[in-house]
Amino acid sequence: MASFASDNTAPVHPKVLAALATANNGAAPAYGNDRVTARLRETVAEVFHCPDVSVFPVFNGSACNGLALARMIRPYESILCHRQAHINNDECGLPEFFTGGKIVPIDGFGAKLTVAAIGDTIAHALEHAPHTSRPRAISLTQSTELGTVYSMDELATLTAFARTHGLYVHMDGARIANAVASLGCAPHEVVKGVDILSFGGTKNGAMLAEAAVIFNPVLAEDFAYIHKRAGQLPSKARFVSAQLQALLEDGLWLELGGHANAMARLLAEGLQTVAGVALLYPVEANELFVTLPRPVAQKLFAKGHQFYPWPAEGPEAYRLVTSFATTKAEVDGFLGEL
Amino acid sequence: MASFASDNTAPVHPKVLAALATANNGAAPAYGNDRVTARLRETVAEVFHCPDVSVFPVFNGSACNGLALARMIRPYESILCHRQAHINNDECGLPEFFTGGKIVPIDGFGAKLTVAAIGDTIAHALEHAPHTSRPRAISLTQSTELGTVYSMDELATLTAFARTHGLYVHMDGARIANAVASLGCAPHEVVKGVDILSFGGTKNGAMLAEAAVIFNPVLAEDFAYIHKRAGQLPSKARFVSAQLQALLEDGLWLELGGHANAMARLLAEGLQTVAGVALLYPVEANELFVTLPRPVAQKLFAKGHQFYPWPAEGPEAYRLVTSFATTKAEVDGFLGEL
Amino acid sequence: MASFASDNTAPVHPKVLAALATANNGAAPAYGNDRVTARLRETVAEVFHCPDVSVFPVFNGSACNGLALARMIRPYESILCHRQAHINNDECGLPEFFTGGKIVPIDGFGAKLTVAAIGDTIAHALEHAPHTSRPRAISLTQSTELGTVYSMDELATLTAFARTHGLYVHMDGARIANAVASLGCAPHEVVKGVDILSFGGTKNGAMLAEAAVIFNPVLAEDFAYIHKRAGQLPSKARFVSAQLQALLEDGLWLELGGHANAMARLLAEGLQTVAGVALLYPVEANELFVTLPRPVAQKLFAKGHQFYPWPAEGPEAYRLVTSFATTKAEVDGFLGEL
Amino acid sequence: MASFASDNTAPVHPKVLAALATANNGAAPAYGNDRVTARLRETVAEVFHCPDVSVFPVFNGSACNGLALARMIRPYESILCHRQAHINNDECGLPEFFTGGKIVPIDGFGAKLTVAAIGDTIAHALEHAPHTSRPRAISLTQSTELGTVYSMDELATLTAFARTHGLYVHMDGARIANAVASLGCAPHEVVKGVDILSFGGTKNGAMLAEAAVIFNPVLAEDFAYIHKRAGQLPSKARFVSAQLQALLEDGLWLELGGHANAMARLLAEGLQTVAGVALLYPVEANELFVTLPRPVAQKLFAKGHQFYPWPAEGPEAYRLVTSFATTKAEVDGFLGEL
């Protein structure tokens, strides 16, 4: 039986565990003033071709998003995101809490924002100032909550639009490794025009490690205060940094993300051959949204397979998520039950 | 050379690391619905003699305090604490952020609150309602920021007063193990009358693990929302819980706290024999506040020993902190330089 | 030329001004402990058949909504309202600011909420706890932002649903006088099942006066703190209360609201006879949403008439608002230009 | 019998009432885009010798302070004020609410800040960054909560210090008229080096009218959003502006403030002749803090005179406040009872 419930039910990659043991070497300065964290910054600078990057390791992805957005906006400003975005639906109001501002949800196919939809929202808000919160940032999820991936063209169009309109660009990269692996691009290409990336580790083999990766140096200023005040500055920061370092070294993150994507494609291919099964969105990363006839779903649940009904996409819709730890045997076993 | 800079420059105890490896065993439900977290709750219930206890593992001590206080007060209410409290001085406004309310700092020797000082503050605030935030909680730090420990009698007096006046009692237990070891009491005795304990692991051998331990069942209600909304709900919670479980099993936490205390006493005894050195407060846990003649301090720094000047306590005041990892050889070496 | 720009461009009714002069009679206790405010509470109790009502005079309608909602929810909870609601669009994030919570916008014809739409949102949110803010209040605008009025049946259905699901009911009554006059009901009938009413005065002849009218005594508790902390407790409260008292005495509020409604109907009747003009929504209160051929609109603007384009309702959509001060001559003059 | 309870128990000055009637002249643009508000800005510019001043009329003094401070700091920053300041004691946490930041109370005689005390606080906070909120603004109350007035020299020293240390200067001028009248200076002299003044009207003959007067043009940017989002933007703003205009025209504000001061001095002179009565602070504005033998106080209360015990200043301490409406007859009558 297989767990396709989420990529955060997966365990920790052995190299991450090993890195924690290696980091556990005597006393070290607290609060990120340690060598492991310094090395992480250098690695991120290399990977993303950004010598001046600032990197703030944090414990949690929702918090990482909240910190980034809190740095971008003032409380009377707003963040534009897709209605399906994690920051709109799955963080219990954390972004409003951390920013004081307003989340403005926008529609679009496949959980993707478009320039047209954003443009209307901005025009209306600015005409109505100061009665409507001023749009100040857009938040893109890459890969998206529906398992799609923004193409390089889509990103270029959105970031150019943002720059023109004085909007910061946040990228929620809880699954950035899956996106980069899917696009087959260099990591720095996917963050072109992005001001802050929430770099995700936990869903991709880390234990609990994310980082705010700040490409825009203006936004690095004062970030240390925001980091601390939200309870996201680890006192023993080396143990968060070490996890991310382990992922970034030798391209492990992309290997793991690519593997999860491959398992998702395998699953998608198998499912498509089954009568009554339909994919709701292109499978471009490690999440699948499918309609399954109810008896099929019930049989799978009865066998102990784990995945979630996804009623927001229809009465017979389900979500399946693969991870770095998903095996071909698990996928085959699952498909064999159909 | 020795690091007495802080107990969070220390490494992770080997048993904690081992527990992480053990917990890394295939897929497990996310968000605290795993077996390790369930077992942790049972262990805490046993240790603190509270069958109905609720336990919320979190990443960070400041955040743990903030969550507890956010559950206790409404934004128009206040929290009474000592002026030296971590929540007043060292969290960059996190408690105000998480609660929306007001921190009211109060004076008292050795960083301890007294009923007399609290009583005056409350009386004035209530007379002046609704122009002054209503006192609703007191926060006690055990052991305190000045290395002292509230006695059982002091705690009994304070918690009785709180109960009479409708105030919740929060205990900041970032160093609770040191306090319990110092008092030589049973763990449940030190939390009698406490509504929520911030149980500290990180300063006592964990990697990054604290827990909100809720003794008052009324306050457990809705805590899951507060936990999530603040970015403190670990998706792979088993790896936070496992750290705390490792500490609590077989009394490891008290053994480690007791060791740190013993090293502090050793240091104190040695320092007292040196001309011009004075202890500013009784050394009851693992922190020492001393005056050192400047040449002595400079010689120690020159040898590479690490500890902080503490100007708030005077121009020649310094703080030294021991930890579970401090060795007798380090203490002896340090004292040998004097 | 006529101003149909908004009901808050109107002046103050002479009886309101006279009441201010009357209230200006020597010293009086501050902060609402005066006789005028006490008398206002009694009047509201009579008008709404609620002997235990609590009344908190405030300066501003957005603030009144924010106070009411802040009393109803905790920061991890949400408020369900129509996407067109003032609290969602026109208050620059004040409700998020005052409550700390999340506004969840919902669709529905004529700016009205329906039980079906609310039900789906609640079900999804509760399934997803604690990752989604918990719905805790619904906010109904009466009359709505599109000039429609909830019928007694619609209100009964919504408030019954709310009661069943443990949701508080807030009514944004910035134009409550128009709604009551339109329905021809007794005032207490329109607030049946409502927990807090934002009673509007400013748009109906007051200078600057609204009141939080609390029917649910549970919500009156601690409201004084919320009132004060948000800067909405008038030190010389008698001068806010006197305005509302003047409106409520002898039914002046309903007379004025009814007059504004009548002027709106007159305008609607006249406009409907013009080729190319269409009403977008039923004209049930004092706001009209119409499509006007662009040349017609331009001619009217050129003559100095004031009203707003309303692009959210279409490229040729406009909003016209009447008030207590609108005269038949103004309406006739306006219609005469068409 | 006389009311010395507070200057906000006083009525409204007849010229203010008359100005409201004059402003009530047909339709006018809402939200401060009216002529009365434009004229007020010009008047303020003249009075304070600041052609580029921005003026935002608001309803309430606490809110005015909160808006000003919210513009000055980010949530991870702090405001330094005297422990006795209204923003620290009398606003139920409004400044923390509006700013998200921390209020740091500081001691000093006569409710006055000194450079020495501020300097220590700043040094400690900056050394401890980012664990302590960064000081970013000082708030001076002029006249102070204890009825004293900062001298021109004291102000020059404080504002120079602030400028050097990158701190904004807020002046809480709820009683600014009393201070200017007391100093006998030109109004622009008292605000030299001040970034935003909370200009008070309500305590000095207005009905409910204050204004954020912004001298530093950087801080005017985006203020409109803060103004709106806090529920302090009056829809019918002309009626707030008209009150302030009435006070500022022909120096009425200084005449009224000067009268209140004169009545306070008269009271002080009379009280000093009574055995057992002592003034606790110099009487420089319109507030007196005195010790009265309990039998004396009781006799006065029994006669119906109104004033408050002030236990924070001692068991026999009382506060008396005069206002524009206090008459010599009232003072003489009161003194005659002693």
Automatic annotation (TrEMBL), chains A, B, C, D:
InterPro entries: ArAA_b-elim_lyase/Thr_aldolase, Low_specificity_L-TA_bact, PyrdxlP-dep_Trfase, PyrdxlP-dep_Trfase_major, PyrdxlP-dep_Trfase_small. Residues 4-291 form the Aromatic amino acid beta-eliminating lyase/threonine aldolase domain. GO terms for molecular function: L-allo-threonine aldolase activity. Its cofactor is pyridoxal 5'-phosphate. The keyword Lyase applies. Its EC number is 4.1.2.48. One of its GO terms (biological process) is L-threonine catabolic process. Pfam families: Beta_elim_lyase. Homotetramer. Belongs to the threonine aldolase family. This is L-threonine aldolase. It comes from Asticcacaulis biprosthecium C19.
